[in-house]
Request: fold
Amino acid sequence: MLRAVAGALLTPFVVASAVAPALAEPVAFGVSDAVVLRDTGGTAGLMLTLSPDSAARFAAFTIANVGRTVAIRIDGKTVMAPVIRDPILGGVLRISGNFTRDELNDLAARLLSGAARVEAEVEGR
Reply:
């Protein structure tokens, strides 16, 4: 079972350009790659690479929402709710928090199969 994580880490990795999004509805994203990793501190995480069109939408979304708390949901469940400190422009992000390695492996497999839905929405609008 995937657990909701508050205050998890959302980190930018690559830079690209983007266009402005609408803020009224959750924004859905397609994932082209999902890799389970463990950082030097031993915390399990998941690195997601968004599809090119989703990367541009996510960049625009983060540009428009710097300073706001954004819920990142997978299959309707909030997996993290970070404050966007800087635009995330390259379509690569890392989800980390209180996950087991088995949970992350299952999540990665579902994301790669296209069976899981990823979306973001501004909290407290």
Observations:
- Confidence is low (pLDDT under 50) at residues 1-22.
